[in-house]
């Protein structure tokens, strides 16, 4: 196992605490009580379910210098009911060494050419903090206003801080929560990196929703699905989208859209 930093240990503790507070005792076969002072499971209950010492688990949440094995992390993940992106995130912040410097925002020119070649399918590439690194004409027309903020406009800032985004995105709450979950996952894997801390502060300082949702520690990964977008003429169209990690640039993502065909099943299972 690689060494972990003090900031990374604190991040692990915050994630475990947020997830523990979401688990109802009834969900795991324990008696519930209306007299509980805190939401979710107690630390002692979670430790019992995971088969580990309550004191040792408390040290984990407190960010103490203890080194959980993969077997212990797996037991905690099962006790918390973690799967998919949440389980992956647990192992990433507990085991892997985070990036010590600002993430790479340099885009390969060949990737930018692919974005242009995909026009008229709206396509863009985002960096580690969701700065828009490349986009084609169709994307600029679809997400009008998102690209009007400097050399590298930021998708998260537009969604949360520009009121026009709520008009362009009829399902704004779902889109915003999903985007913030992906940012939260990346920030958790880069504790102490200034660009993430600055973006968090800006969002939470100006957006009540971001301030309320950030401590919940929802995490997500890029994927596929359906997004509704309101066009300039007021008509709402449903677009299927797919996201891909850029080769050799794990923090860069290409997302491309196409008009959804009638009767087509949503690949994400949700709107």
Automatic annotation (TrEMBL):
Residue ranges of the region described as Disordered: 252-271
Species of the source: Curtobacterium caseinilyticum
Domain annotation HTH cro/C1-type: ranges: 40-87
InterPro entries: Cro/C1-type_HTH, Lambda_DNA-bd_dom_sf, MLTR_LBD
SMART domains linked: HTH_XRE (SM00530)
Gene3D superfamilies cross-referenced by the UniProt entry: 3.30.450.180, lambda repressor-like DNA-binding domains
Upper classification of the organism: Bacteria, Bacillati, Actinomycetota, Actinomycetes, Micrococcales
Record-linked PROSITE patterns: HTH_CROC1
Name under which the protein is recorded: Helix-turn-helix transcriptional regulator
């Amino acid at each position: 196992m690689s060494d972990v930093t003090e900031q990374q240990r604190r991040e692990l503790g915050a994630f475990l605490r947020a997830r523990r507070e979401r688990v109802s005792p009834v969900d795991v076969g324990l008696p519930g009580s209306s007299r509980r002072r805190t939401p979710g499971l107690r630390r002692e209950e979670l430790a019992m379910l995971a088969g580990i010492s309550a004191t040792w688990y408390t040290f984990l949440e407190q960010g103490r210098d203890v080194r959980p094995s993969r077997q212990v992390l797996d037991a905690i993940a099962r006790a918390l009911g973690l799967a998919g992106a949440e389980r992956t995130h647990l192992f990433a912040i507990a085991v892997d060494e985070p990036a010590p410097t600002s993430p790479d925002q340099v885009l390969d020119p060949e990737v930018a050419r692919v974005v242009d070649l995909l026009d008229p399918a709206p396509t863009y590439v985002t960096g580690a903090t969701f700065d828009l690194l490349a986009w084609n004409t169709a994307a600029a027309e679809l997400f009008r206003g998102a690209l009007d903020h400097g050399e590298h406009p930021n998708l998260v800032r537009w969604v949360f801080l520009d009121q026009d985004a709520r008009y362009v995105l009829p399902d704004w709450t779902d889109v915003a929560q999903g985007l913030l979950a992906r940012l939260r996952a990346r920030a958790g894997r880069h504790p102490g990196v200034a660009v993430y801390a600055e973006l968090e502060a800006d969002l939470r300082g100006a957006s009540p929703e971001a301030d309320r949702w950030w401590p919940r520690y929802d995490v997500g990964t890029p994927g596929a699905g359906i997004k509704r977008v309101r066009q300039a003429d007021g008509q709402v169209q449903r677009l299927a989208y797919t996201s891909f990690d850029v080769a050799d640039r794990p923090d860069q993502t290409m997302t491309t859209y196409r008009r959804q065909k009638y009767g087509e099943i949503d690949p994400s299972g949700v709107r």
